[in-house]
Amino acid sequence: MIRKTLGLFAGLLIAGAAYADAPKIAVTDLAYEEKVSQYFHVVAASEKSSIRASESHRERDSDYSSSASGRSSVSGKHESNYFEAEGTYTYIDRGELRKFNADIKGEMLKSGIYRVMEAKPYTAKNTEKLYDVINRIKQGMYPGADYVLFGSVNSMEWRNEANPVQGTGKYTQTMSLELVAEFSLINTRTYEVKAAFSAMGEGQDVKFLTGNNVVVPNRGKVVSEVSKSLGADVARQLEEQFNPGSRVTRRVTGVTTTTEKQEEVIILK
Fold it and tell me: pTM to 2 decimals?
């Protein structure tokens, strides 16, 4: 009993020391870039008018004569301008999605292989350097991290579909979201890429409806499912490519299990 207790205690100490040496990884929010086209219709009108009037009057009166004279003038000016145009303009919108990395961090922590560090959000106005990870590392956006897991969105597609259920007179209303992102694990000191892969998250909310009934789909449920499935996929692929676990003991619910094997020794005389 004492031997087993000491073994378990030693195992916990080894696991704790190993976890302390585990690589520290900062996980970024998912960067995105999309081309946005918008319609515009502009109408501008201005009108300006002015009027100017003057009058002068002169009278003369004496014992011998009298006279009077006068002069008046009126002038006016009017200007109007009208401008109308319509069309479309296109611009590149860049930024970070801040809803999908919590479950990635959670799955990484559950593995017990990594320590997760907080990354600073990208708030710079110059979004052209959003994808410049090395520049962001040099700016100290991942304090204390040995590696940064940088993710960017490849595809994000919402669907809202209605399909009849044969023989029931009902139909299903399905809202779904599919998100595909690519990830790179980069060493913050050498800038070496230690892992690279794409991962996918999926989620949906299905309602059974009859007639002309209308319901509001549960958008929060869909986003939550996408986040969880994406987190699981990322953690799985990260472990496949970057697992220094050969020297780190894997933790299972915080307890390390040590199996002792006794061998019988026979001494021949």
Answer: 0.69
